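Incident log, support desk, overnight shift.

02:14 A customer reports that sequence design results differ from what the structure should imply. Their input is reproduced verbatim below. On-call engineer (initials T.W.) acknowledged and began investigating.
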């Protein structure tokens, strides 16, 4: 048995090649010319652990970054950690090593890569078909092929490029906002650590004072000059303050490790932190959040994305043209021509996409406006808190602390003269210790509030 179709298949394929091989070859070359190859990269935990453990505040990367900061600011800030790491130097280290900032910058790189290739034409589409006429005809093969290009006559791709650029700028603004938050958080954690240092010093000071008094009262109790019950009170207070000092010491170590993690250094990195409860002066009462506030800048960028998204969705309702060359061989006759197609926007017209984009734009507008309102409210609350703290600190500095210090001195002299007053001295020491701890707390909260005000108002508008 013979099969005419199979017998003539070689010459039909030859005819197909003669007619369409050029189009297919050109399409294949275009298809593979822009392809990239895959190259795997292994994730090595031990290598990163070694790099993390070797980080230092004095590393070259930090110094170079500090030099760039000095070139772009009018303030003179010499970066030198040999005498210890100050709060401003700690902020510089955090800008280099903070883990959250690293992720934010890498995410901005993703948006940058998207923006670089946004708005490109769609890849052309190659199509071909091979049909056989089942009836007995001299040339039963019908062979066709086409290469279709989508021509963006709607202008959608241009708007897509603009939207991708807006998304890139929004990610960069998120990085700037994250940096501003990290600067605030470093000051916040540094102040908390510093306050623990001062609390521990104060607790150790009263412990030493009580140790010297315990020796004196014990001798007086042995000599019958002082009731043993009164002498025992000093020993009890000494033990209590020793336990307090150990609590402060443990909290100090926890706070230091949180600070190390925040600035991006390992727990074992060589680091000499300088304690301070001064975070700079508070902004004036006239300072308000402006357009350069990092939070508002980021929200404005997100509104711009919403605008470009709406513009893109509106452009989508106008169709793009599909056009390209076409070849066909039918019953031995070759034909060459063109194909074209254009959607008719009378049923869908991207109504859903446009409505959604309009709603998202209103959300973005409200996000900006309500955040401004929140900032103004939080600033007012912080300023009210600051006024209250300053009033309390004035009373402590001017009245309470001098009075209890004078009371401690007077009671100590009475005890040395053998005129009693041991309970008065103990009470005076405790009141003095508590007053100074309260003063540390007020200084901490004042510095924290000033730091929060600077964050809420934003850079460049602090006066």
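02:41 Re-run completed on a clean worker. Output:
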């Amino acid at each position: 048995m013979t099969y005419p179709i199979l017998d003539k298949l070689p010459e039909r394929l030859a005819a197909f090649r003669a007619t369409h091989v050029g189009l297919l070859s050109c399409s294949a070359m275009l298809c593979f010319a822009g392809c990239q190859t895959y190259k795997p990269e292994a994730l090595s935990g031990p290598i990163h652990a070694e790099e993390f453990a070797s980080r230092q505040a004095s590393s070259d990367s930090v110094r170079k970054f500090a030099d760039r900061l000095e070139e772009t600011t009018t303030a003179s800030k010499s970066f030198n950690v040999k005498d210890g790491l100050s709060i401003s130097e700690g902020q510089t280290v955090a800008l280099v090593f903070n883990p959250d900032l690293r992720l934010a910058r890498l995410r901005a790189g993703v948006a940058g890569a998207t923006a670089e290739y946004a708005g490109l034409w769609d890849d052309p589409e190659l199509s071909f078909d091979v049909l056989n006429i089942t009836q007995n005809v001299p040339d039963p093969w019908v062979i066709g092929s086409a290469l279709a290009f989508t021509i963006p006559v709607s202008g959608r791709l241009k708007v897509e490029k603009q939207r991708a650029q807006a998304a890139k700028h929004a990610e960069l603004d998120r990085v700037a906002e994250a940096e501003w938050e990290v600067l605030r958080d470093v000051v916040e954690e540094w102040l908390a650590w510093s306050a623990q240092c001062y609390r521990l010093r104060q607790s150790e000071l009263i412990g030493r004072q009580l140790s010297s008094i315990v020796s004196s009262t014990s001798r007086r109790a042995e000599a019958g000059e002082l009731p043993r019950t009164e002498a025992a009170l000093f020993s009890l207070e000494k033990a209590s303050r020793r336990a307090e000092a150990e609590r402060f010491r443990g909290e100090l170590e926890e706070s230091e490790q949180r600070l190390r993690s925040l600035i991006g250094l390992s727990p074992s990195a060589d680091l000499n932190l300088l304690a301070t409860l001064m975070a700079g002066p508070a902004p004036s009462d006239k300072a308000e959040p402006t357009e350069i506030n990092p939070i508002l800048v980021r929200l404005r960028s997100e509104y711009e994305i919403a605008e470009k998204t709406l513009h893109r969705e509106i452009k989508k309702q106008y169709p793009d043209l599909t056009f390209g060359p076409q070849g066909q061989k039918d019953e031995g006759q070759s034909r060459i021509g063109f194909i074209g197609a254009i959607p008719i926007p009378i049923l869908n017209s991207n109504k859903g996409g446009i409505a959604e984009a309009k709603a998202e734009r209103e959300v973005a507008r409200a996000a900006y406006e309500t955040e401004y309102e929140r900032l103004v409210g939080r600033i007012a609350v912080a300023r009210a808190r600051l006024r209250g703290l300053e009033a309390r600190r004035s009373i402590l500095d001017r009245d309470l602390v001098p009075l209890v210090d004078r009371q401690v001195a007077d009671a100590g002299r009475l005890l040395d003269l053998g005129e009693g007053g041991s309970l008065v001295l103990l009470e005076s020491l405790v009141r003095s210790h508590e007053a100074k701890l309260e003063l540390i707390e007020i200084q901490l909260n004042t510095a924290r509030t000033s730091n929060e005000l600077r964050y809420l108002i934003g850079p460049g508008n602090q006066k």
